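go over this chain:
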Amino acid sequence: MTGAGPGDRRPDGTPVPGAPRPVTGPDAPAPRGGDDRAAPPVHPPASASGTAAAPRTAPAAPSSAAEDAPQGARQDVPQDARQHAPAGTGADRRAHQGGREVPLEAIAPVTPPPAAPSPTAPPPATPQPAAAAAPTTAAAPKPRPAAAGRRRRARRGGGEEVPLLGRFLARAAAVTAALTAAGSLCGLLRDQAIAQLFGADAATDAFLVAWTVPELASTLLIEDAMALVLVPAFSVALARRAAGGAEGDDPVRTLVAATLPRMALWLAGAAGLLALAAPQVVRVLAPGLADVSTAAACLRLTALTVLFFGVAGYFSAALRAHRHFVAPAAIYVAYNCGIIGVTVAGHGLWGVRAAALGVAAGGALMVLVQLPSFLRRLPGRGPRAVRAPRCRAGALTAVGLGALAPVVTFAVSRQAQVLFERFVASSLPAGAISHLNYAQKVAQLPMVLSLMVCTVTFPVVARAMADGAAEVARRRVERDLALAGIVVLLGAAYVVACAPQIIGLLFQRGAFDARDTAATAAVMRVYTCGLLGHSMVGALVRPFFSGGRPPWYPAASMGVGLAVTAGAGVPAAGLWGVYGIAAANALGITTTAALLLRGLGARVVAIDVPRVAGGLLRLLLAAGAAAAAGWAAAGLCAAPLAGAALGGVVVPVAFVCVGLLVGAPELPQLFTTVKRRITHAR
């Protein structure tokens, strides 16, 4: 039993009934004379049964200063130094308990109890002062600075993601989602403007062949290759900056100086070569195209995006590594606004070439919208710039041919699916390339929304891999896969259910007639069979490229998927036209996703592959049932708007109900997370 302290007596000095009795006799601790500094712990005597009695001290609970201090920073302080430490210095006021050092503020009671009064002694004549009567069995917690509390929450659990990081990621994902949705809306307006002004004929086919270059450049220089190489590189540079060191060049500035000028020079040369060889490039991309001259003229304009997209992708990677997502998420709003403005203003004068000029102008706007944020985060020269010792540009990152080759090969192989589609469709009747393009643009919107979470969390995964926190990376990847699967499958179910209504509302006006609407809607329904594969490839490939040297496994997996697409697409196109091309695309990308899922768990992050795959299959079953229910409901309404609205209600309800019925574990987890966020916001 613990001794009774001053707080166990009434003001008149009589004991409180039921309070612990003081320990008397030879085992009673000696009084400390009012000094409450650093006394050694009191060991309890053994009971009659041979077991130790209850300890005199409460379990140690580290204070804020002890919890925030890094491991190894708390060392033993000599006993005499602790005894003579000034009052109020919590860093020096420590005792030993249970074989480890514990702050005195966490030990109860702080002072040993006084000797028991004699039974015949009269009670004190005057009550003790209020300050003396205050209980000391539980020391009042010290006020902690807000920064210390934030640090404690951010570091708890050995690197585990805790509320501070979770709230930051939630806000970043919300901002990214809003800007991504705005960019997608502007993209739809762009496609609507092109469809209304030029329809789906030989001229639009020529422009879309020239647009292949910006699409390939976007995949290589913004979304995949550039981000997959540079986000880990900047994460390493930021980690070395955080480590500190001698004064000198900042690791981030060193990385930028070593890579950005050289990259811009190479990209400018590539853009010039594309402009010079435009007719030959068109013949390679679409050998069956009738209007080669228009396509070559458009290609000379769109070739400028190779330089613009490269610089924009570099800025995006650097800003995301700094955990700044606003400017990178806004680039597609600027890009599509530039295309719309130039196309609408110049279509009467330049025809479809105005759209190609708008693509070049939109690329320049992507650079300008990020330039101020990039310059603000680039450290200046001077005494504040620090670096780790012996840090050089070559040591910061392997941004060279060895690192770029597997990433570029993967990105080119992925984009080669689109190149293959247009290569085969160029021999089909006029308008086939346009129908494939419009169907793909709309069908991939759920995939774009599903990948926004992975875009936000990719720097977190890269930093965890750089720090060796494999468990944090594993949990993060599994959560991303589950959330991406929910978003993309729910969107795919809605697209399948309401495809004619969606295409009719978006494009059926001007030169785009009802025949084009029916053909595009049918192709879009086939495309959705591969949406889960597209989304999983985008989510799974990021952990592969988060480590030190990028592996070749993703490029090999993408090569296998491309071979499947080509092997199935050529005969399927001869039998079913554009529908066969879309089906081959879905089959090839699903093959790649399965290979990446298997390889990720075995090679990079030890995710539970059977559990993840089982959850995705349950979600796929729920999406199939929801698509059937929404298709039936949308067919009840003659007006496209009413059918799309009714399908928008039926599909989510059916998806959730069937998902819970088949036991998809991701949905209850999502509901729990949302409920927790709402409760925390209140």
Remarks:
- Residues 1-7, 30-164, 381-399 have pLDDT under 50 and may be disordered.
- DSSP finds 27 helices and two strands in the chain.
- The first strand starts at residue 94 and ends at 97.
- The two ends are 43 Å apart (CA to CA).
